[in-house]
Amino acid sequence: MNKFVTSQHKYNTLSDYFKNKYSSKVFKVSLDGGFTCPNRDGTISDKGCIYCSEKGSGEFAGNRLDSLRKQFEEIKNNILKKWPNSKYIVYFQSFTNTYAPLDKLKKLYEDAIKLDEKIVAISISTRPDCLSNEIIDYLNDLNKRIPVMIELGLQSKHEETNKYINRGYTLDVFTNAVKKLREKNIETIVHIINGLPNETLEDMKDTIKYINTLDIQGLKIHNLYVVKNSRLGKEYLKNPFPMLTLKEYVNIVTEQLAILDPKIIIHRINGDPKKEELIVPTWSLQKFIIMNEIDKEMIRKKYYQGINNK
Fold first, then answer.
1. Mean pLDDT in the chain?
2. Is the pLDDT confidence value at 59 over 60?
3. Rounded CA separation 127/19 (Å)
4. 1 pLDDT tier (thresholds 50, 70, 90)
5. What is the mean pLDDT of residues 189-193?
6. Residue 5 in domain
7. Is residue 34 part of a domain?
8. What is the pLDDT of residues 119-133, one digit of tens each?
9. CATH label of the domain that carries residue 176
10. Which of 31, 67, 163, 269 is deepest in the core (most CB within 10 A)?
């Protein structure tokens, strides 16, 4: 069993990973760098992914109208009220955060890592088709000065699913981007979504089996939820379709964890929608209940991460 697996959780949690690496509580401070996305501005599509709201997928960041300094300080001050000795990761989450000229990216990232002496890393969420060789070369240089984490949205390994959700790139593009990042020793985190239309448990386990073939360091597991002002939301309101129950989601996640490479760190294990924007399922709002149910099911099944990894 991996050393990060605790008695409470039978999988490798991000909090344990950070505690081991930095000997401190570490928080991601989500900053909005003012980016858009080629899947929204017409370069690839003007529709975006089917589940994204008009505000985009990163809706918990600071106000994009404010400076990076103001965004950072406001979020940091809230964290300090509860965790006065914490450290920080500056996190560019909203939209596609390498979708800009290299000069703009350099200024943004260099300014961000200098916002506070307790910043220990920078995390950048982006698309695999927005990582040119010159951008990766720069990230390689940055990674030599401060740890860089790149987050990539896979969602599913199945091409039919990804055409339906309008992801906008093929599996080969994703695989190649991961390879290039890892050649530069850049930490790579992958996003997947459980409960996408028409996918079975075996389909979702196949996505994990594909992930096991990659050299990645982290995984974010989300449940599909439907929000207002998204194409999926409009479709659901016209013609409601089945969504995963909490019990089904817990079963899927535990089966995935059982086959997941035990070295991979779990950065998230459920989605985190805003209450005022959520349509379904309402159980998505019960973050700690979801985590507790997963813990209980892992114990009931006598599972831990990677027990069925072959």
1. 94
2. no
3. 29
4. low
5. 98
6. no
7. yes
8. 999 999 999 999 999
9. 3.20.20.70
10. 31
* In-domain check, residue 310: no
Q: How would DSSP label each residue in the chain? A: --TTB-SS-SSBBHHHHHHHHHSS-EEEEEE------TTTSSSS-SS--TT-BTTBS--SS--TTS-HHHHHHHHHHHHHHH-TT-EEEEEE-SS-TT-S-HHHHHHHHHHHHTS-TTEEEEEEEE-GGG--HHHHHHHHHHHTTS-EEEEEEEE-S-HHHHHHTT--S-HHHHHHHHHHHHHTT-EEEEEEEES-TT--HHHHHHHHHHHTTS--SEEEEEE--EETTBHHHHHHHHS------HHHHHHHHHHHHHHS-TT-EEEESS----TTTEEE-GGGG-HHHHHHHHHHHHHHHT--TTTT--
Outline where DSSP puts E strands in 102-230: 119-126, 148-155, 187-194, 218-223, 226-227
Q: Averaged over 184-201, what is the pLDDT?
A: 97
Tokens found for residue 278: 């959520």
Q: What is the pLDDT of residues 209-228, one digit of tens each?
A: 999 999 999 999 999 999 99
The per-residue pLDDT for 3 is 55
Residue type, 62: G
Helical packing angle, 133-143 and 171-183, nearest 10°? 40
Q: Give me 153's structure tokens.
A: 């949205």
Q: Is residue 110 a part of any domain in this protein?
A: yes
Closest residue by Cα to residue 109 from 221, 3, 31:
31
**Domain hosting residue 53, numbered range:** 14-301
**Which residue type, as a one-letter code, is found at position 145?**
R
Dist. CA 48–CA 37, nearest whole Å: 8
**Structural domain count, the chain:** 1
Between CA 68 and CA 65 the distance in angstroms is 9
- Nearest to residue 62, comparing CAs of 38, 34, 98, 89? 34
Strands 148-155 and 119-126: parallel
State residue 62's pLDDT score. 81
